[in-house]
Amino acid sequence: MGQAFDEIWGQGGPDDPRADLAALARWMREVPPHELKRRLQSAEATFRQLGITFAVYGDSEAAERIIPFDIVPRVFMADEWARLSKGLIQRTQAINAFLDDIYGERRILKAGVLPPDLIFGNAQFRPEIAGIRPPHGVWAHICGIDLVRTGPDEFFVLEDNARTPSGVSYMLENREAMIRLCPELFRNFRVAAVDSYPDKLLETMRSVAPPGAGAHPTCVVLTPGHFNSAYYEHSFLADSMGVELVEPADLLVDDDVVWMQTIAGRVRVDVIYRRIDDDFIDPVVFRPESLLGVPGLIAAYRAGNVALVNAPGNGIADDKAIYSYMPEIVRFYAESEPLLPNVETWRCREPDALKYVLDHLDEVVVKLVDGSGGYGMLVGPTASKQEIEDFRRALIAEPQRYIAQPTLALSTVPTLTDAGLAPRHVDFRPFVLTGAETVQVVPGGLTRVALKEGSLVVNSSQGGGTKDSFVLMDDGPVQSQVQAQSMGGMTQSQGGR
């Protein structure tokens, strides 16, 4: 792994920052460290007061804690953002087309682009959903596409999140904190606003309501309850959109119609932003022992009487083995080259790839194909000999469960530490909203930062923090919205590669 590119300091360090961001580097030099620390402490106190916490399962000493916040923003120039937005829209449309196809005609399998066992033998594939087409043909209404950067113009997709991507509440709260604590930055830089996200999300939800919902569809956010690690986000979004936050017990299905029980009586529900995993959402169809589900919900969905955001079955698009085929998937459905490349990936299910990975375990990153949160992962260069040998045995026993990637020199951003400002590695999760007519990229996102020196693991569950993400505007507001081809049009027009 080579020397990391710093997004503000470039390769020259604090004394020779990137020309475009010299003003931000000057701000970092001029604001005394103790003042930066005071502002940081003020932000964290506000987060605690608001209850912006994250539950760490299995950690009895810190069941609820705030995600650490850093005061130095991460910055995207307008031209960088324009390029990223085009790539994000292309990839999201391909994901929607792939899901529509794999649960429908399965043309991509007939064309031999993917091996069938990668789909049908995958735990994230839901045969119970096959043959269902969601309202307006939209599956992944909310996508979080994780990106990493390795140089001035080098961005890669690290993974796709099309099930229930989280983190948008931190994006919004981080911005609120920065406006309050560092107003001078917003006077000196034209930063695109992100506070319209709840309105755009509600607009997206309403646009995909079933045809019979009328002009004012009823939308709700479905949460498993306050013990869930992302409960703050569930309640935050419901409150910001002005819709009801409901738990499964608040809903019932009668004659394939979903109703919300209120003190004034039943109210028909048209669109559900669900934050409950597929396994638990309907005990009639999935896990019968689930206490979190709504019996009959999938029947109502199959009948076309309710839209589920995101759609059940989307997990197959998140799978890291499927990720390794995303360039081919984009080419098949978009009939053009991917605008955002993947990180090079070895599929350990393939003998030659497995041999290479086993021979280079101390150099690569190994991941579970269905893993998340930084768990079940080996970072070869920083792993102990025992950890490497443990992974070697696991790979040999079940190679199909793993993929491997090179250890990238992830970009860094200056971050406030006990010793002052120092570079720390970051990744980025932008959010893409797909409605019946439009695809929108929020001009910002969640920057996650590895707070430990030299660490590449940015996940909050592994001790990572967050930063605000500035998208700078030039002569006008950043336009990250396109009129989407109808998802049906995209899938139907792609008869081959």
UniProtKB/TrEMBL annotation:
Organism (species): Sphingomonas hankookensis
PANTHER family assigned: BLR5612 PROTEIN (PTHR34595), SLL1039 PROTEIN (PTHR34595:SF7)
InterPro entries reported for this sequence: ATP-dep_Glu-Cys_Ligase-2, CP_ATPgrasp_2, UCP005522
Record-given protein name: Circularly permuted ATP-grasp type 2 domain-containing protein
Record-annotated Circularly permuted ATP-grasp type domain positions: 73-450
A Pfam entry, by short name: CP_ATPgrasp_2
Gene3D superfamilies: 3.30.1490.270, 3.40.50.11290
